[in-house]
Amino acid sequence: MWSFFARDPIKDFNYELLPENQEKSGIWTLSRGKRKTTGEPVSVFVYEVSQGTEEQTQLAKAAFKRTKTLRHPNILSYVDGLETEKSLYIVTEPVTTLAAHLKLQAEKGGASDLEVSWGLHQIVKALSFLVNDCHLNHNNLGMWAVFVDRAGEWKLGGLDHVTSNQGESTSLPPPKVINPDLERYDPPESPGGGGDKWTGDVWRLGCLIWEVFNGNLPRASSLRSLGKIPKQLVPHYCELVGANPKIRPNPARFLLNCRSPGGFMNNSFVESCLFLEEIQIKEPAEKQQFFQDLSENLDSFPENFCKHKVLPQLLTAFEFGNAGAVVLTPLFKVGKYLSAEEYQQKIIPVIVKMFSSTDRAMRIRLLQQMEQFIQYLNEAAVNSQIFPHVVHGFTDTNPAIREQTVKSMLLLAPKLNETNLNQELMRHFARLQARDDQGPIRCNTTVCLGKIAPYLNAGMRQRVLISAFSRATKDPFPASRAAGVLGFAATHQYYSVVESASRILPTLCTLTVDPDKNVRDQAFKAIKSFLSKLETVSEDPSKLAEIEKDVTALAQTGGSAATWAGWAVTGVSSLTSKLIRNAPAGSEAPPAENSPVPQSAAGPAPTNTASKGVQQDRSYSSEAVKKQSSDWSSGWDADDSWSNEKDADGQGQSSPADEGWGNDWDEDGSLAESFSPTPRSKASTRAPKSGRVSSAQEGVRLASDYNWDGAEGKSATSDLFSSVKCFTNNHAFTPSGLSKAELAKKKREERRKELEAKRAERKAAKGPLKLGARKLD
């Protein structure tokens, strides 16, 4: 009756055995399993009790006890266990037998010497722990007693025959009694025939080394044939299998010999593994140096080791060790081995957190290497957690940060929502193109705008593109002007015939007399393209609808952004930072020899009357569109100020509305050590007044070399432009005849007089103060 209410302990066991891939390991059967509650994978060693196996049952119970009590990083980890009258279960970390692991590696080309050196290091270290620290003999060392975990690390198991080496009596039978085939692994001397306590175990260690490199040991005499044992290991191997037991080294001594200079275990992989085992007690400077050197060595490390051993340490170092940007390069290298699901679970949360960091080095490395992880980012994370932090880079005081931020938009644009793409991003692009003091950054902004144009909505394209590219054609930096021309050509399908004739062609025609020959060449090509379009419609008006079908087309959805942004996320440095370091503020380049229109330095700037006429008639834009987002509209529509109002040197001056971009900017334009979202000062954000650039800007790639058609191009961040010289419009004075400095001084004097007059008016209105009266203002 009581047996009816008794519960079966096996049914209540917390682990479930999986029937496939069962392996025999001595008296045990190794099965795969999982925890019932969480599905966590485990390995389960099962022993079934049967009649006439009393000696084996005794060994199984001894192994159960030893596995449960012996704890060491290189000994098989005990998780749980169950002992019943009919069976014994030992649950361990998920492992496979060494024989099965080496067979799998042989199918892939064979295990590398690096992997084997670290595996033998772990087994010898575990054996040294048993012999020297626990005063135990293993007595069962062989291929069947070594297991390999998911990271490829070797673990010592097979603790069935472990006995004390301090003279205590034991009733356990020797291995050859249970399995006669194991007799060939016994040392040649008789038990107790001399030598130290470890002599039997180190002999079996020599047999293990022979089998790792040469396969199954047919007989003991085969140990004399070295086979494929590496030359570095041969002298130490010969000591292990020496006939004289007194010369066989202690496991600890054998380990030191192999770790000596030139030894088999003296390599970068073993050094890295040892460092990772002790990383928690290392100094911060040592950790930094280790992660810097790790990237170079990862390519030679086993894939499973990188996924299951290196990756957790990298994530821990960033989360708790303040490792900073140095973990990024090895982190992304290891990420290549992960599946999409594993990448989402392990790396994406860390990347999202990294974007909120104030460390400049980390932010710029994230932007440079965005191509490696952009495909794993979902749109919700990009818009809510990443983009709000990235946009701070547009106003950073460091030009390299601003440049990389612009380039990163090529990858982020397909994933941005309506507000972030058509309003927030356009506002920052307007500021950069009009006010940034670095010509390459203004050029890159124009290039980026041309590439992301398909993702803008139709209304924003009509409002922004013509104004932005027209502004670029008036930029003092030649590459920016070329980029503006190519921007028109690359986005020609988004302009109506009326816009092409009345707004674009007049702008392009002015560039046919540009001082730079490349700009002139690109302008002529673009003009021919637009004229061909107009001629087609003139000859056959029925083709108008076909030609203008993309003018009001919907924005494209985000696709594979990594394939069409070749130069967007490469290189560590950029031309912009080089210009900042090398170019003095006042340096100039000589005038162009091939300039078709030489001008007097004191001559007034020619006025683009055609552009004025077009700008006065903007019938394409409705009143509702004109009222949208006054911030970015003042930025893009400031194109008017390039042609209507001139600086002292003849270049465009920002309109009053555009001046509103920087009214409350920080006056400190210095490069801070740590990232700060504080925008740059007015002085540092204005486009350069002179059209000339320093000789340091020579040797830069033209905008015509960019991959405008959307195909994948070569990565060349450090060579953004090809060789080109930049020239000035040679207008040193304003139309009023005053120099730039005199005009600024005159304006300050007028402003001072105006303020003094206002103060005098307020004082007169209040009247004279009475004696003893309290002054309240």
TrEMBL record:
Biased composition (Basic and acidic residues): 751-764
The keyword Coiled coil appears for this protein: yes
Keyword match Cell wall biogenesis/degradation: no
HEAT repeat coordinates: 386-424
Top-level taxon in the UniProt lineage: Eukaryota
Polar residues bias spans: 606-622, 673-684
Disordered as annotated region, ranges: 583-700, 735-777
Single annotated GO MF: ATP binding
Domain Protein kinase positions: 1-311
Pfam families in the record: HEAT, Pkinase
Keywords, alphabetical: Coiled coil, Repeat
Job of this protein: Regulates COPI-mediated retrograde protein traffic at the interface between the Golgi apparatus and the endoplasmic reticulum. Involved in the maintenance of the Golgi apparatus morphology.
Family classification: Belongs to the protein kinase superfamily.
The protein's name: N-terminal kinase-like protein
Species assigned in the record: Cyprinus carpio
